[in-house]
Amino acid sequence: MTLRARFTLFIAGVVLATVAAYTAALLAAEAGHFKRQAEAVQWRATEHLARVCGEAALTKNELTALNFFKELQTTPHLLEALCVAPSGLVWLRDDLGRLKIRTIIQQNPLKRTKTIEDTNGKTRWIYTVPLLRNGRVLAAAQVVFDGQETVRSVHLLLRETARRSFGVPIIAMGLAILLSWFAARALTRPILKMAVGARRLAKGDWSARVPTNAPGELGELGHEFNLMSERLGELDRLKDQFVHTVSHDLRNPLGAVATSVRMIRGEDTPARVAPLVDIIETSVVRLEAMVSNILDTARLREGPLTYDLRPVPLSPIVNELARLYQPVAEQSRKTIGIHVAPDLPPVQGDEEKIRRVFLNLLTNAFKFTRAGDRIEMSARPVPGGVEMKVKDTGVGIEPDRLQRLFVPFRSTDGATGEARKGQGTGLGLFIVKSLVEGQGGQLRVESVVGQGTTFTFTLPTAAGPS
Hints:
By secondary structure, this protein is an alpha+beta fold. The protein contains 11 helices and 12 strands.
């Protein structure tokens, strides 16, 4: 779930809980209000009856009281109404047929009271109000109401109130969700833009920038992000400049050493010196290839490399590299072999870059093999091109490392054992893939841990696809 959805649901939940609590409190307050109103009506009816009963007791005129009894019967939920003499004897009630019944009320007529009786599942609210004159009770009124019906009427009023006001929480909830969505959008949009910028930075795009007009701390974070991106770009430019400078400075002494080795090599070279000359020559070639890899990696960041494509015979390249690496093989107690088809056609490619492809693959093969292992170079014609292989019987490559084998600076990540000991700059295979594909070819690798690795690449023939 996205941050925006979570924030929206959180705000909506808070608002819903608040609205629910407010509605519950409001309905509880309304219930109390309606109940108090019903009780006030019943108290007024009882107090009025007490005054009527007192006047009837003074004037000995019961007609007024009887008329009021008739009016009182229209009061909602009325069960019974009485006029009580000071002795507690009921002398008037709303049921005229029972006037002769002698009833003594249980409540003290000197007190204004409300009692609740539950009889046979029925609730009765009994109100008693005395009428006092000079501290003497003239009469008392007692009115009984159906408590269940009174409560039921309160609930009906409450439901009607809730029904009328039901739209308010719904509208409030809708507005809360809408406002929380807009608030979440305002907060998450700059975060999402920073995430996009971070992904661009991870891919090496130092021009990535994010808006800084976000509110509060988000705006400050965007500003710091842009400063970081600018600083990383500056550091990257300094790094490229350093790589260019160092690589070019290395080429001059390496060229001088290579020229000196070629001048030293000859028929009059002492036998004890010749192996050392071979090793120096091989090391110089490998160093030159390493410097070229570094330079080409920097150039690939700026754009594609340029290629001088022309027909290139492969046999001289393979034989020369085998001669160069023969002393290294003897010194490390490894064997190197070549298998070149006699009818091998020339390929359409850049000779210097083809030589570097072979050189990088050979260097890797020697790094990741042990004493007694064998390294083979082969070339044979295939439909539309020439297939070349560099195969070894070394330690092999773990399957999880094959996926990142051609990523610069990471080809040896996670290597163990002999592979860990032989790791280098991590640029060789990245350059190999770039050089092969740049000449219209394809590269693939097959490896079994403990049995060896085979790199196979194809280049088109000089005559073009057949």
